[in-house]
Amino acid sequence: MQPLDLSVVQTAIKWLNQQQTVWLCSVASTFGSSPRAPGSLMVANQAGEVVGSLSGGCVEEDFIERIKQGEFSQRCTVLQYGGADNARTGVQLPCDGVLQVLVEQLTPSPEAIDHLQIFQRALRGETAQTRRVDTATGNATFIAGRATGPKVEYQADNGTIAIKISPVARLIIAGVSPVAVACADFAVALGFEVIVCDPRAEVAGSIVNPEVTFEPILPSLFIAQADNSHTATAVVALTHDPRIDDLAMIEAVRTPAFYIGVMGSQRTSANRAERLRRSGGLNDEQVARIQMPIGLALGSKTPAEIALAVMADVVRVLRGRPRDGL
């Protein structure tokens, strides 16, 4: 399944190549109830065709109608739905929510297409970028960015919106176990692309979620392959089998993954750290990248509770929150 935001950008490029003007919309901020998170994308053309979404239903209908009436002819607009604008737009968001949208008009040109191709490469995981838009001029530039932290930083005082561009978050699970199965299900529900790796034929049937990709390969070999890990990737090992877990960690620290963790008690983790230094050849900096023990200290006992603690910690790091900030 192709990530929705990538489809948005690819469609925008296609329409520009067809000499159509397009309106690229990004959710800049939300307050209260909102179906789409900051950074979510939508693109529309003059004919009223739309790929992606901003909220669902009435917001998109109002936006398309306003395009047909000739609005948004300037390069950049910050549009608000909800709050004080309810009466003007006639659109009421659920639970008194407020949605601010960055609307950029892109006219066909080699420069616009080149710009979106950089956007496309970032969404594919080739490079992490931050897209900075000056809302007064409409000028947009890319700077090297990170996949973690707040998706959007909207500085209303100087009219600058900075949006992190990165691929859909990916979770690589090294080895099948009851915790791994529960973790995969949680991750799918959270919107992650989930890949479970295990060479044992007898465990393949444990993965029944159709949204989970099962790779019948030793996890360390999969992790070591080029392009399987990017800056929005988390790698977790949850089997208690050093033959799987240790090898996965040795390869994971050589990738740009934002989160690397392995299950085990404090004593097991200390022994593993020493083993990874002695036998795996890892240095202190590489060992420090590994969350050992993995997950938040929730007092978890069951596989589902441990998986919850793991995914809560992965999301914490993805959102750029320190442990002591929870």
Spell out the helices and strands N to C: HEEEHEHEHEEEEEHEEHEHEHHEH
Q: Cα distance, first to last residue?
A: 33 Å
The mean pLDDT is 90
**Oligomer class:** single chain
Helix content estimate: 25-40%
How many helical elements? 10
**How would a textbook summarize the main sheet?**
6 strands, parallel
Helix/sheet category:
alpha/beta
The tally of strands reads: 15
The proportion of residues in beta strands is: 15-25%
Number of domains: 2
Unreliable residue stretches: none
Neighbour order of strands in the largest sheet: 12-11-10-13-14-15
Q: In angstroms, what is the radius of gyration?
A: 22 Å
Shape: elongated
Protein name: XdhC family protein
Organism: Halioxenophilus aromaticivorans
Domain XdhC- CoxI: 15-81
InterPro entries: MoCofactor_Util/Proc, XdhC_CoxI, XdhC_Rossmann_dom
